[in-house]
Structures are given as structure tokens and as C-alpha cells.
Amino acid sequence: MKIVLSLAILLCLMQQANAQFTYKIKADSVKITNDSCTAELILENSTKHINGYLYNRGNGRTEFKSILYKINDSVYTVGGDTLLLLSGSLFNAWRLSGNSGTTPSTHFIGTTDSTRLVFRTNNTERATLLGNGNFLIGSTTNANYKLDVNGSIRAVNDIRVNDVLIGRGVGNELSNTIVGNASLSNNTTGVYNTAVGYRALMNNTSGRINTAIGYAALQGNTTGENNTAVGANSLMVNSSGVNNTAMGYRALTANTTGGNNTAIGYNAMATNTTGSQNTTMGRNALTNNTTASANTAMGYLSMGFTTTGGANTAIGNESLYYNTTGANNSTLGSQSMMLNTTGSQNTATGNNALRYNTTGNNNSGFGLNALNNNTTGNYNSALGHSSLVANTVGEYNTAAGYFALPSNDSGSYNVSIGYRSLRYSKGSQNIAIGVDAGSGITSGSTNIMIGYNVQAPISNTASNQLNIGNWIYGNGGKIGIGVTSPAAVLQLAAGTATASTAPLKFTSGTNLTTPENGAVEYNGTNYFVTSGSTRYTLAKTLTNTATLNFGSTSAGSSADLTITVTGAADGDAVSLAVPNAAVLSNSSYTAWVSAADTVTVRFNNYSSGSQDPASGTFRVSIIKY
């Protein structure tokens, strides 16, 4: 068989030299073998130095075609041509359908120089990777950021930036916003929450409309609503409290169920648990409050020690600082009521007002240092700089004016109105109204001083004295008008000739319907006095005196002389007083109003001889009705 095949091949080669022939070899009738190589069939021709393959052209013919042949990683031959690759292997190219078997350390997309890498769609630059590693999206300007995006970025799920979580938190509720690891990490149905900071609103489940900014802000909140916490640990353990606002480190940090509180400042209301309706502003303001409600504290350390005292208002540095259980106090001013502990219903306005009050109640101090030293005194009112400044235990005192009643410490029931009124007084039941009124009184009590600089009329240590405007004086129940030391229950000063200086003057009025015992009345015409139940009319009397000398009067005749009495009128009753020397036997004197303002006095001689009465002073009195 080998001989037959060899002859056939030989004949073919011989014929090739002369002409082209077509031979048919049927696989089922001819067997060809080769002992020198692994090829199943060898057909030799003149192109044996070119790698290629036979292929069917579709017209019944088979032709030779050269193939790509690798010389090394950089040089390939295609037919008789040489293909030079600049670097790498042709088979290391990135394919549209993806690559496999890549090595990250050597296989990459990019450049090996500083030229930027541009990404385009629709032949428009969309993104650029710069040579310094910065990546620009929608921008062509290098802004020196690793990622510069000109446009919106949308992340479907929460994202981490520098290992900080940003998104919606657990539950993926659209209305929630978180920035920070573990923030809103247990949320189930809570909505409209904002959590910024590590562990902010961490335990919230169904709480809604909360805002937490800061480390562990509102961390323990579960169902609480409408809370706002700004600051590390602010409202940290709040669980179900609602409508709270906390701003500052540890503000309202211990609050659990208390609601409607506002705390602004470092440690403000830090220990409050269930207290509600409190408002604080300032470092450590109301920091020890636990369950008290309705307090307002504004200022550094204001109401710092209050625990359960409620309904207090403290505005000012250290105001009501040591208050613990005192309630219903109102203070305005630095260190006002600073040392109060349990005192209640006090009002202090002004720096240091009621500063040392501890347990005193129902006091009011308005002004710098007003009631500053009061400790246990009650029901005192001080208005003005340093008014009642020294009072400690005195009660029911009222002082209004700069330095009013400033020395009193234990006296009670005093009223002092005016600058420096009762300045040195330490007594009780004194009343002074006016600038410097009673300022010299020291230990006296139950004194009344009214008017500018009026002083005690008798002694600065005596009691029961009265001075009103340096006109009306009193001493031991006796009143003097114009008399400093009255000797009667009522003593009037002497009048003068000057108009309007009469000691006593009545004004016309209407008499009482029913007479009253002891009443004195004047109806514009007459004066009346009532004794028992009978009203008596007091006659209006005109009087005057004159020296009369009738001379010798013959027997059985008379002599007339006149006395002027202003106001005398015809018909008025006339009373005549005759001097003793002018009285003679068998004679008489008569008098009557003979004309307006004129009284005629007549000497009647009834004797048988002439008589000459002695000259003397005659007095006439006229009673008018």
C-alpha cells in the first residue's frame, strides 16, 4: 500500500512541472500516513516558509491564506509583512466584551505620562481624569479636589464619606436625614427626623420630627417627638419627652420624659429628668433641676442648685444660684437672690437684690443691693439702690428710694419713702416720707416724719413723735400746730396781724340734720355748739373800748358820748361795761346803736344836783343775731 501511495504523489509532482491538474482523493478509499511529524496530512508547495491555512472559497476551490504569527511580544507577521506593536501584547488589549486573567499590578486603563484621560459620549467630554489623580465630572477646570462634580449626585442608599455615614438611616424613610455613624440606626417608623453626629438619635424607633446635631444627641430617644438637640450629649437619654429644645454640651442630657423644656448652654438643665415647661439659657443654668417645672433661668449658673423648686424666674449671672426647693421666686440681675435656698414668693430686680436671702418669703427688692442682706425676714418691700440693704430678720418693712431705711436690720413695720429717709433708724413702726425724712432717728419707734428733711421734734431716740412739714408736731399724743412741744391735746400757734394767719378758721357749711353732742358748726351766718342733744347758737359779738369824760351834768339831765364799733347796726343788742370810778349814786348809763358803726353811751343824772362822773375806759359789746 505504501508503494502505491508514493507512486501517486510522485506522479502528481511530476505533472506539476508541466501543467495544473486536479486530483480527487476520497477519504474512504485512500489512506495517507506520515511518520516524520504530528501532522495528519502534509501538502508541500512553494510557500512553505509562510504560515497560513487552506479555506473553501465557495466555488469548489480551496486556496491558501497566510495567518498572523507572533515573533515576540512586540513583533508579529501577517503573511509576509511585519507588524510592530509599540508595547505589550496584542492579546492584552481591553475588549468590548471584557477581559479575563488580568493582573492589577500590570494591567490597567490609563496613561503612563501626565496627560489627562478624557471620557466622552456623543463626542462630548463628560469626565476627565487629570494627571494628578483629580477626577472631574461635568467640569473641565481643575479645582484641586480629588472629585469635582458640576451637577447633582444621587445615591440610592446611604453613603460613607471619610467613614462618615450620610443618608436616611435605618428604615430608609424618605423624610429622614442622617449624617454620622450609628445615627438613627434603630429607626422603624419614625419620620421627619434629622440626625447629624455619631450616635445621634441612635435608639429612635417611632419618634418623629426630631432634630439631633452632635455626638449622642437624643441618643436614647425612642418615641419622643418634636425635640431639637444641638450639642454633644444634649437630650442624650430622652426617651419619650416631647417638644424639648436643648443647645449646648450636655444640655438636658438626663431628661427622660420631661416635655416643653428649652435649655441653651453648657450643662444647662443637665440633670432634669421629668421636669417640664422649663426655660434656661446659660452655662450650668438649672443644671441640678430634676422634677421641677415652669422655671425660667437665664445667666451663668442661674438657679444652678434648684432641684424641685418650681415656677421660678431667674435672669442674671448666678441669680437664684443656691435655690433648691424655693418656688414662685422672680429675680432679675447678677447674683440676685443668689443664696436663697427655700424662700418662696420673692421678687428681686437689680444686681445683688435679696442676695443673701435664704428662707425669707414674700419679699420684694428692686434696685442694686435692695434687701441685699435679708436672710429670714418676710413680707419686706424695697425699691431703690441699697434700700433696706442691711435688713436681715426685720419683717413687713417698706422702703422706697435710694438708701431708704438702709441701716435697719431687725426693725419691723416701718415705712420709708424718699432718698435716705430713716437712714439710721433701727426701730419699728416708723413712717418717713420725703428726702432725708427722719434721717436722724436711730432707735425710736412709732414716729411719723413727713416732708423734706423733717426730723424728730424732741429726740432722735424718742418714740411717738410727729413732724409734718415742720408745721404740725406731735409728742405723746399731743398735737401742736406751729408748736413743737404742745402742752395740750391740740395747741395752736399764735396768730399775727398778717392776713390769713388766724390760728383757727371755720368754713361755711350746712348744719347736721340731727345735732351731735360736742359738735361745733358754722352755717355762714352763725356758729353753733351742741351740748347733749341741744344745739346752741353762739352769738357773734362786736366789741370796742373808749375813754369817755361826760363832765358836769346838771340835775335831772343827761349827757351823750359815742364809741365807734365797726359792724354795729341799728337794732343790735349792746352791752356796756362801766369803769368803777365813773359809777355815781342816783345815776345810770345806757347804750344803743345810734347809727351804723356808732354806739351812743348816755349818762343819766337823777339827783337833785349836778354830777361829774370820773373819766374812764368804757367797753361796749354788740351781739348780732
Calculate Rg over CA atoms: 63 Å
**Tally of contiguous helical segments:** 1
Number of strands: 41
Largest sheet: 23 strands, mixed
Gross morphology is rod-shaped
Low-confidence stretches: 1-23, 27-31
Determine the N-to-C terminus distance. Answer: 196 Å
Structure class: mainly beta
Strand content: 25-35%
In brief:
The protein is mainly β.
Describe what you observe in this structure.
Among the domains are: 2-66, no CATH class; 117-149, no CATH class; 541-624. It is built from 1 helix and 41 strands. It has a 23-stranded mixed beta sheet, with no helix packed on it. A 4-stranded mixed beta sheet has the order 6-7-8-9, with no helix packed on it. A 3-stranded antiparallel beta sheet has the order 3-4-5, with no helix packed on it. Residues 1-23 and 27-31 have low confidence and may be disordered.
Topology:
Elements: H1 2-16, E1 52-56, E2 62-66, E3 68-70, E4 75-78, E5 81-84, E6 117-121, E7 124-129, E8 135-137, E9 147-149, E10 159-161, E11 164-167, E12 177-179, E13 194-196, E14 211-213, E15 228-230, E16 245-247, E17 262-264, E18 279-281, E19 296-298, E20 313-315, E21 330-332, E22 347-349, E23 364-366, E24 381-383, E25 398-400, E26 415-417, E27 431-433, E28 448-450, E29 465-468, E30 472-475, E31 478-481, E32 490-492, E33 520-522, E34 527-531, E35 534-538, E36 540-548, E37 558-564, E38 573-577, E39 587-595, E40 598-605, E41 616-624
Parallel strand pairs: 8-9, 12-13, 13-14, 14-15, 15-16, 16-17, 17-18, 18-19, 19-20, 20-21, 21-22, 22-23, 23-24, 24-25, 25-26, 26-27, 27-28, 28-29, 31-32
Antiparallel strand pairs: 1-2, 3-4, 4-5, 6-7, 7-8, 10-11, 11-12, 29-30, 30-31, 33-34, 34-35, 36-41, 37-40, 38-41, 39-40
